[in-house]
Fold each of these.
Amino acid sequence: MWNPEKELFTELYQYPEHLRHTLENLPGSSGVYIFYGDDQTFPLYIGKSVNIRSRVMSHFRNPAEAKLLHMTRDIDYVQTIGEVGALLLESDLIKSRRPLFNKRLRTARKLCSIRLQGFTANIVFSNEVDFSHSEDLFGLFKTKMSAVEKIRDIADQEKLCYGALGLEKLAKNRACFRFSLGKCAGVCCGKETPEAHHERLRNALSALKIRSWPYPGRIAIAEEANGQTDYHVINHWFYLGTVKTLEAAKEFDIAVPHFDRDSYKILCKPLFAPDTPKIILLD
């Protein structure tokens, strides 16, 4: 099918000859790269890769990024020991420097989650509940509406009762309307026990369960490669920074300004994987 917008991008695209010289200085190792325009203070785009040079070249071959490349005047980079460091640094730089072309990893300090209390599902907020230590939290959402929609989706898939979940009012001793349509298993009218209804809800949410911070305080993740080590300092899922020595790691302030969704998602895999990297307790 003809796509006029895509064709326009292709027609406008020209290989960025003015950037060719920058490729000579880009390393083929892990790290973060930064596209700058005329103003070196505000970046246009920040990305990460296990091979900076290869990833930047892929931008050069993409006609859909013609506008970014046309505006770019220079490309800088920061090397890291490995992928974990690159992921954490990219997330941190995007939040602090807010590049024009990055659409994700922007700061979202007030997050929502689904908390199971009794037989009901409630929406709670990260500025009111400690997401790092609270039990029975499921999912991380940027808005209340997206959390409610997730509950609705699960209810539709599992034939759960909107009334029992608090999504709509339920008349006393009467089945909900969805029961008459075969979309509710009948907890509202005694056809299913509240315990069975709740168990199906919990099972459906289980993949979204938020893990509690498993350490007493700050830790340093030692990422090693080629005889070098970076220490990534983390406190309650919040990335504080990366240093070269444990002495420097211990100097980081322990304050955690908010629960960081992106750091949590980056760190869950390495911290709970079978081949967990070396963890040093700092507190």
Amino acid sequence: MIFKRVGDGRPYPDHGMSSRGWASVPPRQVRLDQLVTIKDTLQLAALLDEDSTFYGDLFAHVVEWRGEYYLEDGLHRALRAALQQRHVLHARVHTMEG
């Protein structure tokens, strides 16, 4: 199993993080098998596009809430890492109280 669980939507409240807010969070390594996805649909074209992060953040966005790590942005990056047989992903992790 690549991820801990495949979810469908955000179970946590709105965090109000802007792009600038995410950019201020230092990236760290997160194990893929600790992540719960919030999307259950994959866009194959985005997975295969080498430039898919050209205009976005290079790091995935993860929300830590109630002891779980939710992959908010970066599903395609996480899957690429898994296909390359890597077990970790560099991500910005925002911890929410809850």
Amino acid sequence: MPEIRSLPPIGLSLYRIVVGFLMACHGASTLTGFPVKPYGGHTAALTDWPDGVAGLLQLVFGVLVVLGLGTRISAVVLSGTMAYAYFSVHQKTGLLPIANGGEQAALFSWSFLVIAIVGAGPLALDTLLARRPDDVVGARISRWLKPSGLPKAVGQD
């Protein structure tokens, strides 16, 4: 049974995993039509701008966020992708997200911004790699993936 003090960091990890999974599903749907057909009813090729490129970014970086690998960088990319989608597609038809159908893009953008700020939490490959100082390769990868100057994620002590 986990201590009560460990539940908020685990909750952060679960939040990251769920949001990343939803984004990866969105990207997979855009590119392959799996698990369901995309909103427009047709899939996009990888070379289609912006749908195919956005689908690829959503799938790849969504999976990285789920795994907790390069979490902050992946979350920044996804936050920017969703902000671009909101301002380039939805903002043209109305000011507020409820009026222009952009609630999903706005929520994803802010959700990934939160993940980029607070980090991956304890249930992440970033955290696992950072805790193994005897693993030279893991330490190098961890240093490469974690930008310097950013505070540690919640649960990384």
Amino acid sequence: MSVNYIPRVTQLDAVQLDNQLEELFKQLVFQATQFIEPQYVQPILPELELLIRTWIFKYSVYDQKSTFGQQMLSLNYKSDNFARSKLFWYYGYNVGLKYLRERAIYSFTSNTKVQNFINKLETFQLIGDILNFCRFIQTGKYPLLIDFILGIELSAEKLTREDLTDFSWTRELLWHNFIELIGTSIALINIFGVRSKLSNLLKYVWWRQHVRSTASTMEAVMTLQTVCACCNNKPVLPHTLGCSHIFCYYCIMANKTADQDYSCPKCYFNGREINKLIMPGHQ
């Protein structure tokens, strides 16, 4: 006998588990390719992520009518309203659109019209996700926008976390709300403005002037050990500011958009132009 009521926290936990599982697969693939020259891996990075998401979709939603995160929490989509056509729409939204966006960003980095179009699509999708989340909090159904669009509901064959008391549920809900409040508060703080003011206080320090003067004369070279100067991970779509350090495209664009005076956090070089790193053999 299926359960009629599924707690909201359980449904959101399933979504988080799916996101974490995808990131885990990506890390395993990146570790397996860490000894391959970046010039061979970076051009096909969107395709690698497409294969990972397709594999996850095939062996979870396509075969089992539930994601891996839902299976961990004894949840599944109701099969009576999950027709084959909806599977293709589900795949196109969760996998196909992500691939097209990442491929467009990589292949048309310098095309302003394409980038603006992608930014508008991401904005509309974000607004849709926010509105759907507000609706989900009220109704307790369709935690994802695509679930609401296709009308696919979750069900459970047994009670999830049935050993928890009402007090435990209340405490967990309060904890999740507290985390959301902290995240919202941090988002309201102008981190870039604070950093800019602190950085201006150090502009007369002799060691910073020395580093800045020497940084602009060095050419950026990407090796197997190169990491992004912002996030300290392997650069995704490597770009430069004009100094010897390399950034992820998203990292440098986000910082420059928020603060036009953003300078390299490693050498404090304040480059005005963001340039795509041209690797040998890809000019």
